């Protein structure tokens, strides 16, 4: 039995070796397979993060394109900056030169008359011409050339300014000057001795007032009817206003229903100077020694102050008698016909004419009475 067991064990051991060998083979192969599987899983583990990282980097790049602002453009080159700076400087110089030229022209137009500007321009153009003698040195020739070249542009500019100013003044003169050199027709031969009484309209004969609820209204000055009717026997009466025809004509039609005013002149007959319309008595076609201009603003509205007679401006004062008070003085002048009315007007300058005339009349009567008394004394 022992032999049998021993043979069985031996047989078993004999069979066990190949199994063990096989087992060893499989045991060795399994760890290798397992290790290879681990390596492949590790490789797979390492491969997946790289793929995810790649996807993540793509997403990040994509999101960066969508969300981040575009990169700033590259700065301009120094050459471009230089050109831009030169162009800016050129524009500044050109603008400054234009402003200076316009300011100079404006000042010259304001400060100097056309004759003065022409004289100064002629002197400047004469100084701009530089004659270089033939025997001059090279340096002198260069200096002369540079001087003449430098002065050419201002000289041409002065010529252009003169041409433009002449053209503008001719255009302005057509609007500023009276509509005619002879505003009134010639006097008849039998009327050569008659004096001309020129009357302002507003605040002299009438007063125009405006209120919101009724608009414009014109009021006659107290005594204006008697004033016109009486003096029409002694004077050629002319109304000379700085208002438009559409204002003057309707007022005169209602004011002078008896035809005492021989002529009426309005704004187109005035002289426009420094933004104001002046009466120019030299255009009336009348002898200036026989012209009186009566106005509430006589010295401020007439170019010939020596012919201007001041009256108190009327602004709706109900007790005004200025026109009636002037009738004796104006009648006396018309009857006595002084050779030149201008010295007479000058003797009343700055005084109340009516009051002064009454005082002088009283003084004259007193002297006449004294002469009579002396004559009576010597006759005795």
From TrEMBL:
Region: Disordered, residue numbers: 1-24, 41-82, 360-380
- Alphabetized UniProt keyword annotations: Membrane, Mitochondrion, Mitochondrion inner membrane, Protein transport, Transit peptide, Translocation, Transmembrane, Transmembrane helix, Transport
Keyword Transport in the entry? The reply is yes
Keyword Transmembrane helix in record: yes
What ranges does the record list as Low complexity composition bias?
Answer: 50-67
Task: Name the Pfam families on file.
Answer: NIF
Membrane topology per the record? Answer: Single-pass membrane protein
Q: Report the locations given in the UniProt record.
A: Mitochondrion inner membrane
This entry carries the following GO cellular component terms, namely:
TIM23 mitochondrial import inner membrane translocase complex
Where does the secretion signal sit in this chain?
Answer: none
- Biological process GO terms, please? protein transport
Q: Where is the composition biased (Basic and acidic residues)?
A: 360-373
What's the family?
A: Belongs to the TIM50 family.
Q: How does it assemble?
A: Component of the TIM23 complex.
Protein role? Essential component of the TIM23 complex, a complex that mediates the translocation of transit peptide-containing proteins across the mitochondrial inner membrane.
**The name this protein goes by in its record:** Mitochondrial import inner membrane translocase subunit TIM50
| Native organism | Araucaria cunninghamii (Hoop pine)
